[in-house]
Amino acid sequence: MRRPFVLSGGGARGYAHIGVLKAFEEQDIFPQAIAATSAGSIAAAFICDGYSPDEVREIFQHTKMGLSMQWRNLKSGFLSLKTVEKVLKQTLRHTTFESLPIPLYIAATDYGTGRQTVFSKGEVIPAVLAASTIPMLFPPVVIDGIPYIDGGISSNLPLEPLLGVYNDIIGVHVNPMTPYNPGGSISAAMDRTMHMAIQEPVLKNRQLCSLFIEPDGLGQFGMFDFKRFDAIYQTGLEYTRKRLEEAAGWPDVQAV
Description:
InterPro entries: Acyl_Trfase/lysoPLipase, NTE, PNPLA_dom
Order of helices and strands: EHEHHHEEHEEEHHEH
Number of strands: 8
Keywords: Hydrolase, Lipid degradation, Lipid metabolism
Protein name: Patatin
Low-confidence stretches: none
Pfam families: Patatin
Helix content: 25-40%
Structural class: alpha/beta
Strand content: 5-15%
GO molecular function: hydrolase activity
Mean pLDDT: 88
Largest sheet: 8 strands, mixed
Shape: globular
């Protein structure tokens, strides 16, 4: 069975996408197409390139892509996507959208207009980097003279390119809203503020999904918890296994 997926951004919480897709694979449900942004677009690039969730998990574990994006590096101005770019160049077997075995749509935000831009043609890697560029922490990525930033700013659940083309869309959102903690860290406050600011389009788009996955246990992890790969992966995996049990009969019966 093949179904279209949409994968949200979420920093290190994006590791959960791999666990989510693994749980679907266990039920013989595979991506028909993927629309994604930010951290979700990194995972999606590998899946659409033909890698299995197990293979993507191994890549993430052994390349440590997130280490160049840790919050502690902000003081030295060292936040960079160069490690991500290097791993993508070394690992992807298909580097253009047209050559990917599975259709991929990557959403970034035009920094000039604030509007969503969906990439589905041309080079994959620049689009992934553009979609993953968190404003104020990373410089914009320029493509064809236009600066782009994180796609989550305009739509953190970017199912727009799937609408009218695919049925039974599966939405995966890795940023559950947690209770407010006035004693939290600066990075936690920034994380919460950002996701409150971009929450409205997510709430709207989740209603258009046939099945919506949002592992509530991910609230314990921060955007920069890249060293906690295994825990984040397992949280996505175990939650989705239970969610699919609850949604028995899907997609014949809608479960949102």
